[in-house]
Amino acid sequence: MNQRSTPEQVLKFAPRERPRDAGDPTDEAGEALMSLLQQAADLSNDNCERAMMLAHKLSLDLRAAEDRIKELQGAVDHYEKRAVRAEQWLQRILKEVEEKLIGPMTVARREAPFH
Domain range for residue 53? Predict the structure, then answer.
């Protein structure tokens, strides 16, 4: 632990470091392994934190995309209904034209004498 950030009350009860045998290869290897394990743990925690932040961002993006899809689906439904209504009006107009314009013109041609 870093003694600068450790409260004084905790330092009173902290175990005293034992003197190490200088140059003992087993201790050096153990310390090196512990240091590597700490580095690996730190990297793993950093990677996990980045992955969690990315997952959160992607979750927000997905929710926004789903909301936009719902909005667009609503617009599609609206325009499909308008298109159906427009087709119905066109059918009605066609029927009126056939009944009131084309029908009488056809009858008039049949009845008209040939020149």
Answer: 27-111
């310390």: which residue's tokens?
Answer: 31
3-state helix, strand, coil in the chain (%, to 5): 80, 0, 20
Using DSSP, state whether 20 is helix, strand or coil: coil
* Cα 2 to Cα 25, 32, 45, 85, 99, distances in angstroms: 26, 19, 20, 76, 97
Biggest alpha carbon distance in the chain? 132
- Please give the tally of structural domains in the chain: 1
pLDDT in tens, 101-111: 888 888 777 77
pLDDT in tens, 3-34: 455 666 555 665 566 555 567 899 999 999 99
